[in-house]
């Protein structure tokens, strides 16, 4: 009995498994590859090239208003398909309209603003905020990176058990 040739997305899964990519990456790559094929009216990717990839990436930015990171994710999934599964090296210079990167910067509080917020807290909430700050002062930043709170039992006298993953505290 003859075994049927594997479908394209099954081949993609096989290569992803062979390369030990995560399950989430597998789901994401298959999603974008499927979208790419459907966008091109179910044409096989081996019959397409840079122009079709550019059209798809431009469609994502212009018609679907996806974020720049999503557009890059889609592009990388399609490039994976061509390079790793179909073994086609594309001379890809995507001149498509790219999604705009966010102009918003994350909000960072000044030292005075942080202290004003901490001053407004009391009891357990203030302790939970001050604890990492105190640990930096007493143990140093490198120790804080290796320290985890094993057990935090807050009672009237606040017993606290700190376990160090690598080091002396136990």
TrEMBL record:
Q: Recall the GO molecular function terms of this protein's record.
A: DNA binding
| Record-linked SUPFAM superfamilies | DNA breaking-rejoining enzymes
Where would I find the Core-binding (CB) domain in this sequence?
A: 1-86
What biological processes does GO assign it? DNA integration
Entry keyword annotation includes Aminoacyl-tRNA synthetase: no
Superkingdom is Bacteria
Sorted alphabetically, the keyword list is: DNA-binding
Q: Which InterPro entries match?
A: CB, DNA_brk_join_enz, Integrase_recombinase_N, Integrase_SAM-like_N
Question: Key word DNA-binding present in the record?
Answer: yes
Q: Name one Pfam family in it.
A: Phage_int_SAM_4
Protein name in UniProt: Core-binding (CB) domain-containing protein
């Amino acid at each position: 009995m003859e075994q049927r040739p594997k479908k394209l997305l099954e081949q993609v899964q096989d290569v992803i498994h062979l390369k030990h990519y995560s399950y989430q990456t597998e789901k994401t790559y298959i999603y974008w590859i499927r979208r790419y094929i459907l966008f091109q009216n179910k044409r096989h990717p081996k019959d397409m090239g840079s122009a079709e990839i550019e059209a798809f990436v431009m469609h994502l930015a212009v018609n679907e208003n996806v974020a720049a990171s999503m557009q890059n994710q889609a592009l990388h999934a399609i490039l994976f398909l061509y390079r790793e599964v179909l073994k086609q090296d594309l001379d890809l210079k995507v001149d498509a309209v790219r999604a705009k990167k966010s102009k918003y910067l994350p909000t960072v509080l000044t030292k005075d603003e942080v202290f004003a917020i901490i001053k407004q807290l009391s009891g357990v909430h203030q302790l939970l905020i001050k604890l990492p700050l105190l640990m930096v002062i007493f143990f140093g930043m490198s120790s804080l990176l290796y320290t985890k709170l094993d057990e935090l039992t807050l009672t009237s006298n606040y017993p606290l058990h700190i376990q160090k993953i690598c080091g002396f505290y136990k």
